[in-house]
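Quick illustration for those who missed Monday's session on complexes.
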Amino acid sequence: MRLYSFFRSSAAFRVRIALNLKGVDYETVPVHLTNNEHRAAEFLAMNPQATVPTLDDDGTILWQSLAIIEYLDARYPRPPLIPQEPVARARVQALAQLIACEIHPLNNLRVRRYLQAELKLDGAAVDKWYRHWIAEAFAPLEALVSRYGNGRHCFGDSVTIADVCLVPQMYNARLFKVDVAAYPTLVRIVDGLRDEPAFARAAPELQPDAE
Ligand SMILES: N[C@@H](CCC(=O)N[C@@H](CS)C(=O)NCC(=O)O)C(=O)O
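Prediction with glutathione bound:
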């Protein structure tokens, strides 16, 4: 397996964690987003959406981190990252989507570039935007994981796709100086998972393309 990844991409970070949890060996193919390598013709031929992560599983190309994680979960069932039971399944996916579909699309590189280049916001305003959308989602997420998790995981008493999404999002929140003290349960979950090997090895600073 080859994972097209950028060390600082939180969506790629999710897939790195999932691959590690499943014990799948993979090769990292770095795609430098700030140098626009994802817009090169060769990459677009593989993934016309021009996004990482993109997974090449023996010639089968997959993209969109949640779809890739569902694929990995189906292909390598242990440990399960998405529950089978219908209600639990819907709740876990709702937690993951609160991060991956409500925060991330508003804050990714192409949106920040558009805010700056087209709408002429300065760096401070873009950072304010970034922090705002994290806070909008972290407040309900804190309430939801307090209700459905066990204080160490977002849902139930084992790692799920919700934790896999939360850890990279919290990493970015800290990078952009969000006051995360307002979300003590989220912080406890993330800090508790930090030393788990599957999470630790996926950290941006340990990737081959880390700067
Ligand atoms: N929903 C997609 C988002 C993918 C995405 O936007 N990835 C970012 C990196 S975290 C990217 O490739 N950005 C390139 C850009 O914004 O131009 C997923 O979960 O895979």
